[in-house]
């Protein structure tokens, strides 16, 4: 199977981080920016880099943009350019567009014009840092929907040596322990009798409010 090809429009901090990461993972990446200097800075870190204004339909067409499997729109402050670019990409038949939104309203417009995936990097990172501040045991936080999330949490002292049955997290907090990780070894669908050990990392799914109650109870 041919490797996926990516185009990233906007080589700011977010766009260049995505483009460089994909290139380092071995994918072909075309970087596009209207700012010549940004393109010069990207030339050695991505497969191809071109200076073009993404609100110019002809420019995108001549780059063969519709042949890319995924096009990321990582235009920062210029919301108008971000919306116009997304509209043109969908008009040109790009199947998968991933677009960075500056705020909820921007996100709503992007959804209406057919953006396939909308990401809020600043908001999501803020949320993660906030959770980490409430409970330093939280290693990662993945939002599944507005109401539900998955957290990865270092087993708190108070849990160590006790079984999932004894902890009774499902009944007490309405959250489910989906997996337990220990030094890279994954125990998926753990048994009620499984004991929590030091160094364990619990992967827990639940409603945001229930997860917060759990975090607070063990912090
Ligand atoms: P970040 O917040 O991720 O650092 P920036 O706002 O700094 O984002 O960067 C956005 C990038 O998008 C800039 O390099 C800018 O030149 C580029 N950009 C803005 N408008 C267009 C456009 N119409 N076509 C191509 N690139 C654009």
From TrEMBL:
<protein>
    <submittedName>
        <fullName>Potassium transporter Trk</fullName>
    </submittedName>
</protein>
<dbReference type="InterPro" id="IPR003148">
    <property type="entry name" value="RCK_N"/>
</dbReference>
<dbReference type="Pfam" id="PF02254">
    <property type="entry name" value="TrkA_N"/>
</dbReference>
<feature type="domain" description="RCK C-terminal">
    <location>
        <begin position="136"/>
        <end position="219"/>
    </location>
</feature>
<dbReference type="InterPro" id="IPR036291">
    <property type="entry name" value="NAD(P)-bd_dom_sf"/>
</dbReference>
<feature type="domain" description="RCK N-terminal">
    <location>
        <begin position="3"/>
        <end position="119"/>
    </location>
</feature>
<dbReference type="Pfam" id="PF02080">
    <property type="entry name" value="TrkA_C"/>
</dbReference>
<dbReference type="InterPro" id="IPR050721">
    <property type="entry name" value="Trk_Ktr_HKT_K-transport"/>
</dbReference>
<dbReference type="InterPro" id="IPR006037">
    <property type="entry name" value="RCK_C"/>
</dbReference>
<dbReference type="InterPro" id="IPR036721">
    <property type="entry name" value="RCK_C_sf"/>
</dbReference>
